[in-house]
Amino acid sequence: MKTDIKNRTDIEILINAFYDKIKTDSKIGYFFTEIAHVNWEKHLPKMYDFWENVMFSTGDFVGNPMDKHKELHQKSTMTKAHFLHWNALFDETVDELFAGEKAAEIKQRAANIATAMMYKTLG
């Protein structure tokens, strides 16, 4: 039986599973592997901090994801379909691992963040 997202450990489980999908995804994986050349050892802890802060207001995240997405868009054009696909993979990963109020909340927050980034990045 699935449990709800309760703490940072659950965030780490979710983010690790999500980015394992991203790394090999045929539609958007190349942004991470070929364009941004993500250093996963540095990126994943930042994502843990980001999502833990989003869900539990820890104040631990430092960074500007908007600027990073704008830089990436200048290197390789992103489209609405890319953002929607990112969101679908995120929701799919949440649903595979968790169920409950926080699971529903993280999906809604991810959708809101992706929409804001899409509009600000794509113009």
UniProtKB/TrEMBL annotation:
By its UniProt entry, which InterPro entries does this protein fall under?
Globin-like_sf, Globin/Proto
* Source domain of life: Bacteria
Q: What is this protein called?
A: Group III truncated hemoglobin
Biological source species: Flavobacterium fructosi
Q: What is the lineage of its organism?
A: Bacteria, Pseudomonadati, Bacteroidota, Flavobacteriia, Flavobacteriales
